[in-house]
Amino acid sequence: MAIGVLALQGSFNEHIAVLRRLGVKGVEIRKPDQLQSVTSLIIPGGESTTMAKLAEYHNLFPALREFVKMGKPVWGTCAGLIFLADKAIGQKTGGQELIGGLDCVVHRNFFGGQIQSFETELPVPQIAAKEGGPPTFRGVFIRAPGILEVGPDVEVLADIPVPYNNNIDPNPSLGNQEESTAPGERVIVAVKQGNLLGTAFHPELTADTRWHSYFLKMVDEIGGATSSSICAVGEELSSQPKIDLPIFQY
């Protein structure tokens, strides 16, 4: 099994490293014709505006949209989630081009800027039921988006209360585009719709491989590939990297 990883900017190397631990090859994708060599794709976190400009420069958007429309599995993390959304708000002046396909509204910097980045334990009952392991997942949110609305065919895999403390801005400016979400309400941070998976956080920055394993099973189910080479869930958890971010507890 070979999984494409969009390698324009951001944490593509981290995704490839996790895939390697699971016995799967990650293929760097930078040009449209390279998509023909893979049957699934991960769009990593990074700076979404920069990634969009590079994708436009390489004329990737038509090929990426066709890839999604063909029903091939695609997982977007953080900036990748923004790319997959049908609508994104809170963008810079002029906005950015999207791939679309995921029936949701995403706020680009819902949790604030870089200094509002944080970690928290996410309840993930569907992931735990399918992949085993603990009932929560350590979510790493870095300038993270939030999912404000989802369509009827979108399955919510994780949500959290809107954080509010001295380190986290509970109410990023939505301009006049959308009604804001108040502290105490919940915001969606992971969804699945058919062949599309989206997470507002960065699973590739933890040693817990369950989200990657979950995506590989999506690839199996949609494409009929074999997953016999996938390693045990949670392998090398003791080597989890140290990430010095505030901890949000609720």
Give an overview of the whole structure.
It is a single chain. This protein has 250 residues and is α/β, with parallel strands linked by helices. The protein has a single domain (2-239), classed as Class I glutamine amidotransferase (GATase) domain (Rossmann fold, 3-Layer(aba) Sandwich). The protein is built from 6 helices and 12 strands. A 7-stranded mixed beta sheet has the order 2-1-3-4-12-11-10. A 3-stranded mixed beta sheet has the order 5-6-9. Helix 5 crosses helix 6 (210-223). The chain starts with a strand and ends in a 27-residue tail after the last helix. It catalyses: L-glutamine + H2O = L-glutamate + NH4(+). L-glutamine binds at residues 46-48, 108, 142-143. The active site is at 78 (nucleophile), 202 (charge relay system), 204 (charge relay system). This is glutaminase.
